[in-house]
Amino acid sequence: MPTSPKGPIVRIQSDDFDTAQILKRATRDRPNVGAVVTFTGLCRDEGGKLAALELEHYASMAEAEIKRIATRAYDHWPLDQLIVIHRYGKIAPGENIVLVIATSSHRQAAFEAASYLMDYLKTNAPFWKKEHHKDGTSDEWVEATDKDDKALERWKEI
Amino acid sequence: MPTSPKGPIVRIQSDDFDTAQILKRATRDRPNVGAVVTFTGLCRDEGGKLAALELEHYASMAEAEIKRIATRAYDHWPLDQLIVIHRYGKIAPGENIVLVIATSSHRQAAFEAASYLMDYLKTNAPFWKKEHHKDGTSDEWVEATDKDDKALERWKEI
Amino acid sequence: MKILYFAWIRERTGIAQEEVDLPGEIKTVEGFLNWLKTRGEEFDYALENPSAVRVALDREHCSDFSQPLAGVNEIALFPPMTGG
Amino acid sequence: MKILYFAWIRERTGIAQEEVDLPGEIKTVEGFLNWLKTRGEEFDYALENPSAVRVALDREHCSDFSQPLAGVNEIALFPPMTGG
Questions:
Q1: How many angstroms separate the CA atoms of C30 and B127, rounded?
Q2: Which of helix, strand or coil describes residue B34?
Q3: Domain limits of chain B?
Q4: Which residues form a coiled coil (chains C, D) (predicted)?
């Protein structure tokens, strides 16, 4: 049996990351893992209008809060690994914003944990997105949506 | 706007595949994709007891059936791409069995489509797994589980 | 009619596929399964637990065994699937 | 008390963080917010829509503004989050 990290891995960074490479590392030599779910959140170009997204964050709380959410997921589902990477700073269209990887011996556990993580990151992780436009119109803060709040209702029991 | 493939991509093959590479190709130059969910199903070693898994399949039906399921998902959720790869033949512990990639501008659509695909593949795709054991005990067909049948109940509306 | 057998149903019948002329009185999947069992003890053994037998007609799942066989070219018999 | 402002609340107050001595009569988050508004029109403007203001106490979300501030070292004010 391979050694399993004790609890989730959380990284908050300004640099872009390579999902493919992280995924490869996460599944190498872990013969007990049957299911791997990844979620990658990418910066959309909003129909070509977006020059860049700027993510402001509350650094010390972001780390604490994501660890709290990830630990709750890790304790609730039978996971082998749970990896969360969230970027801050300036992000160009097509670049990564966030990555969640959940590995488990059960596919539904991996799906649910990754989906739960994303729903909570959207509404509870202290990051704020500002859109910079190509056409020079003024920068705009992205507004939180009701849909994201509603997504949380599924997880009341956890 | 990049050209989008018309409908899902389905591949059934005996060769192993490189999830990381396929993921990279699937997200390259697609600036309207905000969410990418991948599911990778790997061959577990069953606590070191498994020598290999052998997947028998009904080739012509497997292709038709997976295309049917994938097309249903593709038509139901607002997806950009939907890729399904399923292997057959002899598979060693740690190797890939199945890969689903769903990309969308909406994270829940990507999660749900991938999860739906997996639930249907488990119960409706004509593949049968046989376990070959290291200790020489006789080979054994993997039995279908009620849990997999129950997982389908979530998708009645689709 | 082309008949295909998979997994342990194939192992029990001892054949992967065959071409058979169905007796004219066989009209439905159920009638076909009942006839098949009379063909020898290997077939009877393969089908001994009806709840473990799945049927596909021309590569589509058939969940209603009263379905008629008219127009069908290929019947496949197999246990519950374990793909994915 | 260390106070932090983020996103458009930061832009409206014009400061990212400050160290303030809270008047002794301020016991709760609600009392703190009411006092903050009186510090100038930039603060009043930043907090003009109470339903858009989120509060964290020592890096934990606070959803009940009647919560006491005793023992708290850091208050952060920000709009609804848009991470992920």
A1: 23
A2: coil
A3: 9-153
A4: none
CATH code for residues B9-153: 3.90.1170.40
Q: What region, left, alpha or beta, does residue D83 occupy, with left being phi > 0 and alpha being psi -120 to 50 degrees?
A: beta
SS3 of residue D56 by DSSP: strand
- Helices A107-124 and B107-124 sit at what angle, rounded to 10 degrees? 170
| Total residues found in chain C within this entry | 84
Cβ separation A39–B41 shorter than 8 A: no
Q: Which mean pLDDT values do the consecutive 10-residue runs of chain D (84 residues) have?
A: 98 98 96 96 96 97 96 98 94
ipTM comes to 0.92
Residue from B58, B96, B141, B142 to probe the interface with C (highest C Cβ count within 10 Å): B58
The pLDDT assigned to A134 comes to 93
B41 CB within 8 Å of a chain C CB: yes
pLDDT along chain C (84 residues), means of 10: 98 98 96 96 96 97 96 98 94
pTM: 0.93
